[in-house]
Amino acid sequence: MVEELHKHGVEASVRRLTLDPLRGLVAQDVRIYDYKNRENTIAEISRISLDVNYAALLQRQAFLNAIDIRNAQVTLPLPEGADPKSPHAQIKNLHAHIYFPPEQIYVSQADGIFCGIRISATGQLIKRNDYQTVERRNAEEWQTRLAILQRSVSELSQFKFSERPHLQIKFSGDVAQLENARVEGTLQTGPWQRGNYQARNLTMTGEFADQTLSIKQCELQDDLGGFTASAIWRQPAGELQFQARSSLNLRTLLESVGLSRLVSDITFLSAAALRDFGIGKVGRRPAALAGHRPRRAGSVRAQGIPFLSANAEFSWDGERTMVRDIHVRHQSGELVGRLLDAPNDFRIDLASMIDANALRSLAPADTREFVNDWDWPHAL
What we know:
Blueprint: H1 2-7, E1 11-20, E2 24-34, E3 37-52, H2 54-58, E4 64-75, E5 90-99, E6 104-114, E7 117-126, H3 139-156, E8 159-161, E9 166-174, E10 182-189, E11 192-194, E12 197-209, E13 212-222, E14 226-234, E15 239-246, H4 250-256, E16 266-268, E17 272-281, E18 294-297, E19 300-302, E20 305-307, E21 309-316, E22 321-330, E23 333-342, E24 345-352, H5 368-372
Parallel strand pairs: 7-9
Antiparallel strand pairs: 1-2, 2-3, 3-4, 4-5, 5-6, 6-7, 8-11, 9-10, 10-12, 11-12, 12-13, 13-14, 14-15, 15-17, 16-19, 17-18, 18-21, 19-20, 21-22, 22-23, 23-24
């Protein structure tokens, strides 16, 4: 039985094999291993029902037609050095039915719960009879993958879902060339919360094909507004293209992901509208983002100073930062300007009709007492 599973790319051990009158051939206490490194246990499953072609079995031919997994609990090991109390990556209540047609692995249905998210998968992989496993994955790469998975578990554990989210996955490809596989996914959630940030729903659809990841739809709604985005990441070139528009509760959202320092001195009295378009380089090469990004914040308060509105266009190519069409409105007047920050070059042009006395609190704390001793009768 173990040899038969090996023929289909599954390294396993079976403690007990019985013939059940209702379920057929049942394997109990099954362990699944990394087929490139048997020392790494991938999963432990209490029971698997096997659809066996007994005529082929007696003739010592390939005899496994399908396997049926019911209510399995799959637990992956923690990466080396991780806190033993850290939550494990687990798939609970796993049900799956997998067929093995000639030179194929066909998942007709797989369903389980991962970090509170229901995941459903279906798809087909080609596995030719002459397929040969490649060299074993080294321990360092295995630990890196476990660490990435563990980080994902830690992040997802901070979400609280009012309704169970559902992720649907469809896939196809060749076992010998998984990097060229085609994967489609759709994620839908109801209300959820992370920290103090509350969202009404999230919908995402994406596809990975020809080593290109395409996020075709990303829509998020919260109590102030919404977020829509699309993106394309071409892995061979390391190129990222994206478009986004947002009117979310930006401050609370940033606080929920540990980026509150970005807006620690700013309070948005109405939703901040962001519209972005960019092209970037990701991977080992330096980041290079460029595009047209008008940003508009309605009424905002910065270090206690109320502003009626703020607008700007921003671009960055990895070395140079340019902010154009800066336009800030205050009840006492307006400020316009632009900024360039490049290697060995810094320029800023400002024209203001805002009462300078109203901006005293923007001065650094160690100079604020000095600034408060001065009075500017005219706009700065």
